[in-house]
Amino acid sequence: MADNIKKAGSIKKLLMALLVIGPASILVLISTLKCEHRFKKLDVFGTIPAYEAVTGENRKINNNTFKNEVVIYTTLQESCPKECGISLWFVDRHLFRHIRENRKKLGYVKIVSFVIDKDGNPVDDVSNMEQILRDNVIEYDPNIWILAKGNAQAVFNIEHNGQNLIDANGEEFINGKAYNSLLLLADKKNQLRMVMRGDSEGTVRTLQQHLFLLLKEYDLEAYKEAHSKK
Q1: Cβ proximity of 113 and 148 under 8 Å
Q2: pTM
Q3: For labelling, which of 70, 92, 126, 212 has a CA lying 20 to 30 Å from the CA of 219?
Q4: Distance between CA 116 and CA 107 in Å, rounded?
């Protein structure tokens, strides 16, 4: 009981600090924010809601499509890269590049970006966005970074500790909507393991560190399973 009271007090202090920094920071799920890399499993913050979408190649995708895969969900606006909720440069350098360069080992890790207009509505033709990624992302691979047409809000309609990613707004977000600037890290069971803003190097690096923790979790599971059979 004493540990729970102490933990609650710490969380309250951190929330107060986040309020001083700015409302956007509240959306960072706080229990793993320190990211101290003494290995531990990442917390689970719920499940990615069910959704239906179509890729640029008109391939239907949904939650089951990425069963047993790790997925980083984002949105991309038609105004990218000039006005974009996430930084293509930082996501490329700190997330996509690592996945691409280690694709033999990390073939189960994907980035799925829902292409939307300024009002958050799905875009029917994502070919322009694919060209933007080819122009701005080193060795862009559509099999790793997947563009999707569909209701992005369905994916980001997640509530944790009374905070809903859809409801949170603010002038500091692209077009005033929080979910436009967020990166969601989902595990092989479609569980949300981390949320970070994708518009700064520091936050993208933090998500990268949490991705590494999640991948290490699976490496340890595979190691234990392999040695249990001996």
Answers
A1: yes
A2: 0.81
A3: 92
A4: 26
